[in-house]
């Protein structure tokens, strides 16, 4: 009867001894399997139990089984992996920095980085990665930086970042991203800086749906044909939303419908063909709007602009066509400041280009008079000429090209002649 407890005790001691040797960092390498923790893959340098560099190439897959589970900094540069599988780094529970730059990565599977509770920095740069597929970056938490710059990312699938939260920097710059697809950032919350690449040519409806609590969302150097209805629907709690240095084309109606709680909305240095509608309504809960340095090629129609802010409106350094339609701007919400004429400029006609509106000697009452409606509309429309712009856009465009309603006196006079 007494031999069983003794046997148990012996086994227990043996097990404990194994565990102790396994967790002793500097113990000499034991037989394979018994002491995996101290192995170092042949292609790598293990600088310490927490820092491993595998930068000399030769790895075609991630040597997960041979890596010390104590690793905190893991660098796997210039190898030849093409796939990162689901939970590719499972077990490396102390890992803080993971860098996979300069690999031949083309596929990242769903939940590739799951099981890394201490991860702070993830870098995948200079790879041929073209698509961020659904759930590939899902479930990451408390990261300082996710660096995805300098890849060939042209598409971000919906849910790519589902459940990912508390990210300081998410960097997507230097990628050939053309389309921000519907719900591309759905489920991503609490991001301090979300930086997009230049050259985006299309923002789909609901592009930012489900993106919640963002510090800075910067959209720059875009080349859009139009900004379409519901682009910003479902975007919530943004400290700064800036749309800058872009060709926005035609800004259509309902662009900001369904967007809520934006502390600072900034439109800066954009070229805008026309503001078909620009409505910031109370439900948007925008506090401050800065409209600065933009070039408008066509003045918005009366009523096209509505601005309800809880804070400050700044409209400065913009260029508007100084034609008879400027009237609607000067007496509309964009010009709701005594300084407006001193700090905004004419883009045309040519001889007043770049002059401040206030400095124009020829800006007389006749020039600022409203355009006679029949200049803009060939036939009577039930809702005045804004309806013409909405429903007869193509007609109107060709009309404008052929009969510019400038307030150059000769042109204005001939215009009046024409309309009389
Ligand atoms: C690891 O990540 C931290 C936190 O983001 C960062 O401060 C540090 O510089 C990184 N260390 C290395 C060696 O990359
Ligand atoms: C990169 O991966 C692709 C397919 O995933 C393969 O066709 C190509 O040969 C690889 N290139 C290098 C340099 O390993
Ligand atoms: C509006 O501008 C004033 C003066 O620059 C500033 O004191 C105030 O804090 C601003 N309001 C908001 C809500 O930012
Ligand atoms: C101008 O601003 C004042 C005060 O903020 C506001 O009451 C008024 O409605 C604004 N006018 C226009 C045309 O937006």
TrEMBL record:
Keywords: Leucine-rich repeat, Repeat, Signal. Residues 1-22 form the signal peptide. The keyword 4Fe-4S does not apply. GO terms for cellular component: extracellular matrix; extracellular space. SUPFAM superfamilies: L domain-like. It comes from the Eukaryota. PANTHER family: FISH-LIPS, ISOFORM E, SLIT RELATED LEUCINE-RICH REPEAT NEURONAL PROTEIN. This is Chondroadherin.
């Amino acid at each position: 009867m007494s031999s069983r407890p003794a046997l148990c005790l012996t086994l227990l001691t043996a097990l404990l001894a194994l565990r102790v040797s396994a967790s002793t960092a500097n113990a000499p390498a034991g037989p394979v399997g018994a002491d995996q923790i101290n192995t170092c893959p042949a292609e790598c340098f293990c600088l310490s139990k927490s820092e491993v560099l595998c930068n000399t190439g030769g790895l075609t897959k991630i040597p997960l089984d041979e890596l010390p589970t104590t690793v905190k900094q893991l660098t796997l540069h210039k190898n030849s992996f093409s796939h990162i599988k689901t939970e590719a780094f499972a077990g490396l529970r102390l890992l803080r920095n993971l860098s996979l730059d300069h690999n031949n990565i083309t596929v990242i599977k769903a939940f590739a980085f799951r099981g890394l509770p201490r991860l702070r920095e993830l870098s995948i740069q200079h790879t041929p990665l073209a698509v961020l597929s659904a759930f590939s970056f899902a479930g990451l938490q408390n990261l300082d930086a996710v660096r995805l710059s300098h890849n060939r990312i042209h598409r971000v699938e919906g849910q790519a970042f589902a459940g990912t939260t508390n990210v300081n920097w998410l960097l997507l710059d230097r990628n050939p991203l053309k389309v921000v697809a519907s719900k591309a950032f759905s489920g991503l919350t609490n991001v301090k800086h979300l930086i997009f690449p230049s050259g985006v040519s299309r923002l789909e409806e609901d592009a930012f749906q489900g993106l919640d609590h963002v510090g800075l969302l910067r959209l720059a150097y875009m080349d859009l044909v139009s900004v379409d209805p519901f682009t910003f629907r479902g975007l919530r709690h943004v400290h700064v939303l800036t749309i800058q240095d872009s060709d926005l084309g035609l800004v259509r109606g309902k662009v900001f419908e369904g967007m809520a709680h934006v502390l600072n909305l900034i439109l800066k240095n954009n070229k805008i063909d026309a503001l078909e509608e620009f409505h910031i309504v109370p439900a948007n809960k925008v506090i401050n709007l800065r409209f600065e340095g933009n070039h408008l090629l066509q003045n918005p129609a009366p009523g096209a602009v509505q601005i309800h802010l809880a804070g400050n409106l700044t409209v400065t350094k913009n260029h508007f066509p100084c034609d008879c339609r400027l009237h609607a701007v000067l007496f509309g919400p964009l010009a709701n400041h005594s300084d407006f004429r001193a700090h905004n400029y004419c883009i045309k006609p040519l001889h007043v280009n770049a002059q401040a509106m206030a400095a124009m000697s020829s800006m007389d009452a006749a020039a600022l008079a409203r355009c006679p409606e029949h200049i803009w509309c060939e036939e009577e429309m039930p809702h005045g000429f804004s309806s013409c712009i909405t429903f007869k856009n193509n007609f109107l465009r060709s009309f404008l090209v052929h009969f510019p309603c400038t307030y150059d006196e000769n042109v204005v006079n001939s215009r009046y002649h024409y309309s009389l």
